[in-house]
Amino acid sequence: MKNYVLTPGPVPVPEFVMLEMAKPIIHHRTEEFEEIFFKATQGLKKVFMTKEEVLILASSGTGAMDAAISNTLSKGDKTLVINGGKFGERWLKICKAYGVDTVEIKVEWGKAVDPSQIEDILKKDKDIKAVLIQASETSTGVEHPIKEIAKLTKDRDDIILIVDGITAVGAFPVEFDKWGVDILIGGSQKAFMMPPGLAFIVLSQKAWEFNKKSNLPKFYLDLSQAHKNSLKKTSPWTPAVTLIVGLNAVLGYFDKIGLDRLYEKHSILSQATTEGFEAIGLENFAKGCTSTALSVIKSPEGIDAGLIVKGLKKKYGMIVAGGQDQAKGKIFRITHMGYVDKADIIAVVAGVEGILSELGHKFTSGAGVSRTTKILDRL
Ligand SMILES: Cc1ncc(COP(=O)(O)O)c(C=O)c1O
Q1: Which CATH superfamily is domain 258-376 in?
Q2: What's the rounded mean pLDDT across residues 354-359?
Q3: pLDDT digits (tens, 9 = 90+) for 79-106
């Protein structure tokens, strides 16, 4: 049976990227590779919407989250963590590992944070050095209002805004320079439609000032080293040569189709999925604050979402993600990032219809597919 990877990371990789990466290996300390590296960093600036240097790390996204903390903060510093899901929780864990104190805003899963809550805390507690958040919380499908939050931090020299954009960058615009974000992180296995293994991180001038004072331990992920080398078109350690070659193919493609078209694609796939499922009585988990990078759909009352996930795999070879922790058994998650297209979305809605009718959910057969198909005509 053919397998369809439809998880919100890793995502399917297009053939033209795979073929680029199949070429013979190049040594990294050569002019040839330096040009490849330089081209990649230039291309990333466009996607990150910045004139700052975007650093390429050989790590998964968590490596860049770890580096964001260890390179800007010091032991005993205090941060404000917006915790509305598994990846918000990860900020808390990283801070704890480094002896960084945290104040937490617990956000109900499936809801976006209210910026006024952040504003209140920042007004009262002047010791907070950083706000840590996700632009797109992949465990719930929520998009947090980064632009609004940046307004609270951008004119203050004593606080930085650190944004995990791992399922945001490339899927929808996060305007790093314009909004005044201080750190933004992306990951290769998401909207960059590549295999896992690269993380991207950019720091504002304010964040680099924080870097000068930071006393937390760092070596492999020392961003000042990465920055110094990146300006010389290289990296401090052996880079993930093959992945960077693939990255250039992706960035070339983004350039060709245009970022606006790319964002529009995610947005239409998202709407088609949401409305398709609504037509058969299923609700979006992140209603009103949906990230267009993925759809997180609630299973119908009385039906374990795990059965939908298992059924799709067994019957149709479709791999979607289930829910974690408190959302386990309640939701299933589908990517709009990566090499997915109209046919993938039609297939998954049809597949879920097939599984749900076996599980006894009552709906008009074909209503989901029909609604989804109609919206996808706009793409
Ligand atoms: C929003 C978000 N943050 C962080 C991560 C962690 O990234 P990685 O698994 O690449 O370390 C993920 C991965 O799914 C994510 O979606």
Answers
A1: Aspartate Aminotransferase, domain 1 (3.90.1150.10)
A2: 97
A3: 999 999 999 999 999 999 999 999 999 9
